[in-house]
Specification:
The chain has one domain: MTH938-like (Hypothetical Protein Mth938, Chain: A), CATH 3.40.1230. Helix content is 19%, strand content 27%. The protein contains three helices and eight strands. It has a five-stranded mixed sheet, with helices on one face. Strands 1-2-3 form a three-stranded antiparallel sheet, with helices on one face. Helix 2 links the parallel strand 6 and strand 7.
């Protein structure tokens, strides 16, 4: 799927998604990643959905986003609520959707210059 949002200088943009890869700012990533609205794209865990732990979500608070978009893979899978407690107590919203929908939603919000972070699980 090709994604072509309006580009705001300095804001990360998801430019494409395949089954096993996502392109951000024209660079292809073949493993799960965390994309802040600005700054470096970083790897997101090696354990996949079933290996998610509290520390994975706690590190999202460091970005001080308004909203976290969690792309759970090719189908929607919800994270245990306890893993999200730290985000909720900090009043950081989190939305879960399949990774394709997460890519589209992230681009819309980042295109509005919102403080959004996307976590995209691949595979």
């Amino acid at each position: 799927m090709k994604l072509q949002p309006d580009r705001i200088e300095g804001v990360n943009v998801i430019s494409g998604l395949l089954k096993d890869a996502v392109s951000v700012n024209g660079i292809t990533h073949r493993s799960s990643i965390l994309i802040p609205w600005v700054g470096d794209i970083v790897p997101w865990g090696e354990t996949g959905f079933d290996g998610l732990v509290q520390a994975d979500f706690d590190r999202l608070a460091e970005y001080q986003p308004e909203l976290v978009i969690f792309g759970s893979g090719p189908r929607i899978r919800f994270v245990a609520p306890g893993l999200l407690r730290n985000l909720m107590t900090r009043r950081i919203g989190i939305e879960t959707m399949d990774t394709a929908a997460a890519c589209r939603t992230y681009n819309v919000l980042a295109g509005e210059n919102r403080k959004v972070v996307a976590v995209l699980l691949l595979g």
